[in-house]
Write a sequence for this structure.
């Protein structure tokens, strides 16, 4: 069975089938939930049957598509993409659940957009033909644009146009890069073939920066991060969750899938600036969180900081750094996704994102407070939660590559604890605020929405080996690909040398 | 690995999970589960202790926690002499605190939550001391931080309580920052984080150096200093001591747990556990000894003038922990752990005694309104007196033996730091006795100074509170007898027991010198008590007079040397200012957003100009055309 094609087109077709339903929120959301659950079910075989011992592409589908340009319909997953496919399927289910009551207006269109978006995201993670990848990459933009622009907050038009333009500018530059590679690399879009070509160093450098434009915006890296706070703030809960959970992973995924293997020399040459930008993102993002008064904005900036860790591990370019980086993307998807789910749940009750309007929520909603506490702890990387494993591996990797960089990045841990606990205090502790005096407790649906996140956060925190196992072979292969360019591997027992 | 070892940490964990999930439904009887669990781990700890005593060392992995490339770390347990001692301390004090809390927390909102957190705290500390590698130590380390955060902020509706919890966590994170880097360095140098492998490799890194900015830095010193950063945070030494006194915002049993058995002892444990690394760096050891001496004196002087009973005891903890670091700094780790052991009992007793007083006084904690409680609360009084004698180093109580061992070791140390530490330690012994008995006299002796209503309600606490006090009193008296020095005819069993893990530096002094030293330290303690008697019993006017005569000094001590204010003004506020005004308003909003919004604006402006050209007037178009053609012709002719 062409499993990956099913994963891509089932939600798209399922979404479009909603068109034929009557315009009743109750029916539409139920069908959407069933579709997303089925999708998750279809994705599960991957978890069980993925061969962890090899870096080779699995679940491969290869058909010719546009022969004139040597474009293929080429799908496949390896250790780098497999976890994201699973994550996407899970997050979408939760998005449907969190929108259950929140989306009443034009519910049908909303769920169509959501499901089409899911298909496009799956496509991005599965495509191994550059052209096909680009199609999915741009296809994601449209439903996301609509989700923010139609179901968003008061300033949604500004936010969604900003999001669209920022991303589009990056993508177009990437397209130039793709075409350059196509022309110089023997007229092929096959990513695996391209990775084997030894491109001229200058070309590599040029394409690296063209790709950087697209991927850095998506991550988002400092200083092209300013679309994220606006998009997050204005997006409906489900939009924020998708954004944090999956969409911004695409940038880092792009680096991993394309920049590193295809442009190894340029990558090695640009490690310094990339690491510097990562550290800036970590510290800067964390500091800015201290100045926030808006719940969603704060979490959005914390994403900038956390994604700084991701790119840090990525460009540390060793086994620990890269594995940590990929795992941290999953973690961040879970944790920040969960935080946005939680904020969605509370926003539905209070209709305010102002932190100062809250206070004492732990008194009125103790169960919710416990959930949020766990997510907070995972966000600040407490051992036993998934956040710790990712940050630990990333920092360990970075420390072996560039000790000073790791030292600077580790300050993010202090700042992270500071802004998250301060947020928690202002929202959940202290005197009970006016707005939160009478709030209904969590309903079963809401508890069911948050519980999978809790279980996964603890699972990865306590027994991460299951997940790291997926990455091992592909990551070591990737490192070999990049470092075959003649740069010595960073020795394990090498004497410490500070830059 | 045997179930009895696994049961030690996991019984409290199970209790935590069950209590948290179902505590609300179970209601007021919820305490049975955590108490049974912690007593269970106490029994298992005793069994483990006996196994160690008979020469069995347990070191086994449970499963691989993280594996990435050549990095591999397990969840595994090590029970050796040091761990065995810690297990006894943690589980015994924790059990008593659990039982005591039944009386103290009766009828409080969130009763089940309190017991759940207590169990979590116990579990965390047990994981910390039982881990066989640095990662698991760090797991326990952070989990202890979390539990303390939850418990200190237990009354979370109070701003001060939630502030204090947050502060404890964040201040500790500063230490953890160093600890984390220390672990990275350990891993890059030794290729592992498991104790056995690291300590086996330790001698090889003793000679390594690297150069940084032209300076040669000794790798072992750097590792030791970084690890010690963590210890500074957890064990509340200068400059990260600020969280501990605030930690008394939590319910009093929590203070006893934090100050005696869990949390603060973690730092001392870390240094003792890593003694093969610390032994490589004389610089670090001297630093530890000096820092210990400074902190001891610093905290003791603050304790002299505090008026909140819990605050006095809190600063005495900082000061006593500093003693333990002095011991570590002169290489006498066993003496440090000995003091940790005796301190656990008398400090827990002091705090639980405070709790009993606070219950009797209806949550009044100010010394100003107490006095004469002796006749209302006789059992509390006797046990409090025993604890005070113990902390003052009066023989034959527990504190005497451990404190004396530390002072002896400091005296015998060859290093300058050791001498400084000895003299300071002696002075602090005097101050300790003074403030402890100042507290005792002000609370229990003299006339009652509270309101008539308070007096009316004053009565001795219930048995569930008093029984733990009495049991702890036994510890406060007798726990020192495990280490009676040879000079007094004992065999110093303690040091011999810990010898395989911690080594046993010999004190090269004659027994006669040792006896003289003992006499000096006893005199210091007795002198402190006598002075307290003089100032607070015979001449009660003297203290206020002194405060009035030296107001600046009094304010300095009363305000804890203004350290909190300094941090607030020079760290917290500047950080927030930078965050808000420089980064958020400046860089983010003005510069980056300026460009982001500026580019479309420029494009719009440009479009406006272009639009102006297409005004629909044919003569204008002709003019542009003609002009353009002219330019082209000129260009062609010239080119």
């Amino acid at each position: 069975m062409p499993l990956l094609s099913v994963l891509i087109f089932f939600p798209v077709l399922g979404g479009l089938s909603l068109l034929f339903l009557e315009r009743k929120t109750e029916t539409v959301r139920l069908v959407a939930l069933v579709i997303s659950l089925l999708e998750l079910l279809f994705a599960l075989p991957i978890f069980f049957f993925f061969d962890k011992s090899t870096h080779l592409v699995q679940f491969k589908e290869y058909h010719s598509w546009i022969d004139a340009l040597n474009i293929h319909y080429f799908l496949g997953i390896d250790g780098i993409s497999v976890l994201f496919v699973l994550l996407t399927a899970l997050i979408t289910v939760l998005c449907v659940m969190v929108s259950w009551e929140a989306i009443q207006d034009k519910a049908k269109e909303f769920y169509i957009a959501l499901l089409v978006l899911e298909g496009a995201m799956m496509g991005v993670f599965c495509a191994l033909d550059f052209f096909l990848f680009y199609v999915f990459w741009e296809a994601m933009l449209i439903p996301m644009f609509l989700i923010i622009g139609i179901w968003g907050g008061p300033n949604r038009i500004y936010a969604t146009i900003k999001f669209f333009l920022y991303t589009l500018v990056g993508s177009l530059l990437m397209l130039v890069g793709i075409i350059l590679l196509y022309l110089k690399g023997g007229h092929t879009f096959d990513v695996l073939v391209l990775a084997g070509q030894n491109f001229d160093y200058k070309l590599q450098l040029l394409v690296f920066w063209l790709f950087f434009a697209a991927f850095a915006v998506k991550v988002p890296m400092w200083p092209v991060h300013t679309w994220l706070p606006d998009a997050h703030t204005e997006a409906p809960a489900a939009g924020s969750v998708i954004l944090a959970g999956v969409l911004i992973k695409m940038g880092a995924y792009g680096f991993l899938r394309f920049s590193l293997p295809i442009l190894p020399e340029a990558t090695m040459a640009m490690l310094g600036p990339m690491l510097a930008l990562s550290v800036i993102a970590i510290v800067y993002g964390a500091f800015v969180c201290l100045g926030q008064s808006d719940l969603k904005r704060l979490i959005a900036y914390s994403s900038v900081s956390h994604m700084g860790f991701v790119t840090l591990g990525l460009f540390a370019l060793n086994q620990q750094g890269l594995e940590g980086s990929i795992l941290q993307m999953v973690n961040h998807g879970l944790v920040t996704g969960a935080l946005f789910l939680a904020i969605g749940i509370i926003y539905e009750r209070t209709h305010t994102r102002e932190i100062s309007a809250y206070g004492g929520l732990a008194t009125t909603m103790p169960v919710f407070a416990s959930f949020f506490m766990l997510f907070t702890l995972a966000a600040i990387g407490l051992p036993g939660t998934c956040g710790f494993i990712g940050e630990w591996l990333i920092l360990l990797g970075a420390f072996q590559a560039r000790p000073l960089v790791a030292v600077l990045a580790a300050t993010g841990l202090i700042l992270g604890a500071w802004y998250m606990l301060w947020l928690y205090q202002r929202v959940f502790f202290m005197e009970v605020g006016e707005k939160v005096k009478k709030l209904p407790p969590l309903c079963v649906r809401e508890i069911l929405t948050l519980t999978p996140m809790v279980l996964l956060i603890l699972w990865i925190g306590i027994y991460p080996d299951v997940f790291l196992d997926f990455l091992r072979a592909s990551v070591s292969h990737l490192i070999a690909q990049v470092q075959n360019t003649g740069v010595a591997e960073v020795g394990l027992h090498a004497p410490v040398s500070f830059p | 690995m045997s179930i009895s070892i696994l049961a030690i940490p996991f019984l409290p964990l199970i209790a935590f999970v069950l209590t948290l999930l179902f505590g609300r439904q179970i209601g007021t009887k919820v305490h049975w589960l955590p108490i049974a669990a912690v007593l269970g781990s106490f029994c298992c700890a005793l069994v483990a202790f006996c196994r160690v005593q008979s020469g069995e060392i347990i070191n086994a992995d449970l499963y691989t926690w993280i594996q990435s490339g050549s990095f591999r770390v397990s969840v595994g347990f090590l029970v050796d002499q040091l761990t065995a001692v810690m297990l006894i301390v943690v589980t015994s004090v924790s059990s008593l605190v659990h039982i005591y809390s039944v009386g103290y927390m009766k009828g409080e909102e969130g009763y089940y939550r309190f017991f759940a957190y207590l169990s979590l705290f116990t579990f965390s500390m047990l994981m910390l001391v039982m881990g066989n590698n640095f990662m698991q130590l760090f797991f326990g380390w952070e989990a202890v931080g979390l539990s303390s955060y939850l418990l200190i902020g237990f009354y979370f509706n109070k701003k001060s309580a939630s502030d204090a919890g947050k502060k404890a966590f964040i201040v500790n994170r500063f230490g953890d920052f160093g600890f984390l880097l220390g672990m990275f360095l350990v891993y890059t140098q030794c290729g592992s984080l498991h104790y056995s492998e690291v300590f086996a490799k330790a001698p090889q890194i003793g000679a390594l150096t690297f150069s940084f900015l032209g300076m040669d830095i000794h790798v072992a010193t750097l590792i030791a200093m970084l690890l010690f950063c963590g210890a500074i945070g957890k064990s509340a030494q200068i400059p990260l001591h600020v969280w501990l006194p605030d930690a008394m915002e939590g319910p009093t049993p929590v203070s006893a747990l934090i100050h005696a058995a869990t949390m603060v002892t973690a730092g001392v444990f870390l240094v003792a556990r890593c003694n093969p690394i610390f032994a490589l760096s004389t610089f670090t050891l001297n630093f530890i000894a000096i820092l210990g001496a400074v902190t001891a004196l610093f905290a003791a002087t603050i304790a002299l003038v505090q008026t909140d009973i819990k605050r006095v005891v809190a600063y005495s903890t900082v000061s006593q922990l500093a003693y333990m670091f002095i011991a570590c700094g002169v290489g006498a780790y066993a003496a440090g752990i000995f003091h940790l052991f005796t301190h656990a009992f008398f400090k827990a007793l002091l705090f639980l005694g405070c709790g009993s007083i606070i219950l009797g006084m209806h949550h009044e904690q100010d010394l100003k309104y107490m006095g004469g409680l002796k006749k209302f609360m006789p059992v509390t009084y006797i046990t409090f007196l025993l604890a005070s004698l113990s902390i003052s180093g009066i023989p034959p109580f527990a504190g005497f033996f451990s404190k004396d061992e530390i002072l002896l070791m400091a005296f015998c140390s060859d290093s300058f730091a050791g001498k400084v530490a000895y003299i300071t330690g002696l002075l602090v012994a005097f101050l300790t006795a003074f403030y402890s008995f100042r507290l005792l006299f002000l609370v229990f002796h003299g006339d009652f100074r509270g309101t008539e209503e308070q007096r009316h309600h004053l009565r001795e606490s219930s048995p569930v509170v008093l029984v733990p006090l009495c049991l702890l009193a036994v510890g406060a008296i007798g726990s020192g007898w495990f280490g009676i020095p040879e000079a007094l005819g004992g065999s110093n069993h303690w040091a011999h027991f810990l010898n395989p893990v911690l080594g046993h530096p010999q004190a090269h002094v004659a027994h006669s010198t040792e006896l003289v030293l003992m006499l000096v330290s006893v005199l210091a303690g007795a002198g402190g008590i006598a002075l307290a008697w003089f100032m607070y019993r015979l001449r009660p006017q003297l203290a206020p007079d002194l405060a009035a005569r030296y107001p600046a000094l009094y304010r300095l001590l009363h305000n804890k040397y203004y350290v909190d204010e300094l941090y607030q003004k020079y760290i917290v506020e500047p950080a927030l200012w930078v965050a808000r005004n420089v980064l958020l308003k400046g860089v983010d909003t003005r510069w980056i957003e300026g460009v982001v919004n500026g580019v479309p604006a420029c494009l719009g402006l440009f479009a406006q100009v272009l639009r102006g050209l297409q005004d629909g007037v044919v003569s204008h178009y002709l003019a542009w055309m003609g002009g353009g053609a002219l330019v082209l012709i000129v260009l062609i002719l010239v080119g």
